[in-house]
């Protein structure tokens, strides 16, 4: 099932295609998108972990700033080549007015949460194994649900609460089963997850409605702000007062790792494009389920290829986590269908 109406012109396909050609093209793209997104996401996570090693490039602030700068530049280039991919910036019917008040009210809170989340999630690789961090990230739906309740976006319901309590217990079993537990890594990733959840809530509150930012437009609008905020912290560190958590590389280190950094940055932008295409062609539930498969691939890759230790308790806990996310996705889909049916009835 595609995510766009047949009557709308898809910016990702060429004009003038016959219905059969378009249908075949849609089918091929829908089949290729999930494995492509899994590969891109797993590769980005693995390269991030590699770069954060003490003897490689352990500078999360600088690496995220590079991501922000080059993803913004690549986004501008894509905007010039294919404006239709950015409907929130180019389509008169969906265009979002990027005023100063919009930036301060909507974009700034999202950028702050996103920047902190990116830096801390990369910093966590210094302390914990990739498999363990992936297990911790699974519980992010708990943070999002609790914040949604506080913000009035969601209403409390027993079913979701049971699923999320089960998720918390499963996550705790993953923590208990971690043989090389690091409190610093646990707190760092926990804070990153809270910031990621807050970013999601801000997006729901201020970027909803018909004139909302699409995925690629969001990248183009938010990433420069993230880069600016992080560069401000680096300047403060250099000019006003040194900050212990801000470390900077020598130019020689950047030159030595230039090809790894180029691959990592390009991978990040390609992943953003794939996510935008995925949400255009497939349903949100398919996106979440693909994320589940990606998480399984990463944990298996960490255990089998990188020989990271995963205890039996963690295997059990992670399996329950995956089941909880699937149950959560199905419950959300059913709730959405019920709401749509009630609207049609009224």
From TrEMBL:
Transmembrane parts of this sequence: 24-45, 57-81, 102-124, 144-170, 219-239, 259-279, 312-331
Compartments reported by the entry: Membrane
A Pfam family per the record: TPT
Domain Sugar phosphate transporter: 56-327
Chief location bin: membrane
KW rRNA processing (keyword) present: no
Alphabetized InterPro entries for the sequence: Sugar_P_trans_dom (IPR004853), TPT_transporter (IPR050186)
GO CC annotation: membrane
Keyword vocabulary terms for this entry: Membrane, Transmembrane, Transmembrane helix
Membrane topology summary: Multi-pass membrane protein
Membrane recorded as keyword: yes
Listed PANTHER family: SOLUTE CARRIER FAMILY 35
Protein name stated in the entry: Sugar phosphate transporter domain-containing protein
Taxonomic placement: Eukaryota, Sar, Alveolata, Dinophyceae, Suessiales
């Amino acid at each position: 099932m595609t995510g766009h109406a047949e009557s709308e012109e898809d910016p990702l396909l060429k004009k003038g295609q016959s219905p059969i050609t378009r249908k075949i093209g849609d089918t091929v793209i829908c089949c290729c998108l999930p494995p492509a997104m899994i590969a891109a996401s797993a590769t980005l996570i693995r390269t991030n972990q590699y770069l954060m090693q003490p003897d490689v490039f352990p500078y999360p602030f600088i690496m995220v700033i590079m991501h922000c700068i080059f993803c913004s530049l690549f986004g501008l280039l894509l905007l010039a080549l294919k404006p239709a991919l950015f409907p929130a910036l180019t389509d008169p019917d969906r265009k979002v007015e990027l005023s100063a008040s919009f930036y301060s009210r909507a974009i700034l809170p999202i950028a702050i949460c996103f920047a902190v989340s990116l830096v801390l999630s990369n910093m966590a690789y210094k302390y914990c194994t990739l498999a363990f961090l992936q297990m911790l990230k699974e519980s992010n739906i708990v943070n999002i649900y609790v914040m949604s309740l506080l913000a009035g976006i969601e209403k409390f319901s027993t079913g979701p609460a049971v699923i999320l309590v089960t998720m918390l217990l499963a996550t705790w079993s993953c923590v208990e089963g971690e043989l090389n537990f690091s409190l610093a890594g646990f707190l760092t990733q926990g804070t990153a997850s809270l910031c990621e959840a807050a970013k999601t809530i801000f997006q729901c509150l201020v970027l909803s409605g018909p004139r909302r930012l699409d995925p690629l437009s969001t990248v183009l609008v938010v990433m420069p702000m993230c880069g600016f905020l992080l560069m401000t912290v680096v300047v403060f560190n250099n000019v006003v007062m040194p900050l212990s958590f801000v470390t900077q590389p020598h130019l020689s280190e950047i030159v030595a790792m230039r090809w790894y950094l180029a691959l990592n940055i390009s991978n990040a932008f390609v992943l953003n494009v794939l996510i935008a295409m995925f949400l255009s062609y497939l349903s949100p539930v398919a996106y979440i389920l693909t994320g589940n498969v990606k998480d399984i691939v990463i944990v298996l890759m960490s255990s089998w290829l990188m020989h990271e230790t995963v205890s039996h308790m963690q295997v059990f806990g992670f399996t329950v986590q995956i089941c909880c996310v699937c149950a959560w996705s199905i419950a959300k889909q059913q709730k959405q269908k019920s709401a749509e049916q009630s609207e049609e009835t009224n």
